[in-house]
Amino acid sequence: MFPNQQIRKSLKKQQGSMLVIALFVIIVLAFLAYAMIVITENSNRATVYEVYGARALHAANSGAERALNQVLGPNTNESCADATSNYGLANNGSSITGASFSNCNIIINCTEFLVTDTGFTHFRIESTATCIASEFTTHRSVSVEARIIK
């Protein structure tokens, strides 16, 4: 046999194998692309939750500070009755609004009690903030205790 005939017979046996290899490579690349899309989507979702969690935490801190000022600030009666119990932070021009707190709601619970051993009046302020944006809802709570020394 001539060398050309051997090459032709060898090539005839291999017909179609390149198609199988190409198909396998395409399937593997498609799977990798899908995996990258899923990983990126999950990463984006985690970032959104982290940002909204930070917004809710800062809103809860703001609510606790506002309630402390309403209870213990200048020209107050030093009573839990002065603390606002619920307010929203929609971007409507009120004193503590802004883009960073839009669509957040704060619930304040203030408890006043006297410690008989010391004679001091204590205030326990719990501030819970909820921030909502489309399908994402985050809640954060802050608790503060203060006392009046006279």
Tell me what you see in this structure.
The protein is an alpha+beta fold and 150 residues long. The chain has one domain. The chain has two helices and four strands; from the N terminus they run ααββββ. The protein has helices at 3-13, 17-72, and strands at residues 86-88, 104-115, 120-133, 136-148. The protein has a four-stranded antiparallel β-sheet with strand order 1-2-3-4. The longest helix has 56 residues, at 17-72.
Put the structure in a nutshell.
The protein has 150 residues and is α+β, with helices and mostly antiparallel strands.
Beta strand count: 4
Count of discrete domains: 1
Largest sheet descriptor:
4 strands, antiparallel
Instruction: Indicate the overall shape.
Output: rod-shaped
pLDDT under 50 segments (min length 5)?
none
The sequence of SSEs as H and E is HHEEEE
pLDDT average, as an integer? Answer: 82
Helix content: 40-55%
Strand order of the biggest β-sheet = 1-2-3-4
Summing up helix and strand content along with how strands pair, one would put the structural category as: alpha+beta
Whole-number radius of gyration? 32 Å
Kindly estimate the percentage of residues that lie in beta strands according to DSSP.
25-35%
Describe how the helices and strands are arranged.
Layout: H1 3-13, H2 17-72, E1 86-88, E2 104-115, E3 120-133, E4 136-148
Antiparallel strand pairs: 1-2, 2-3, 3-4
Descriptive terms for the model:
150 residues, single chain, rod-shaped, 45% helix
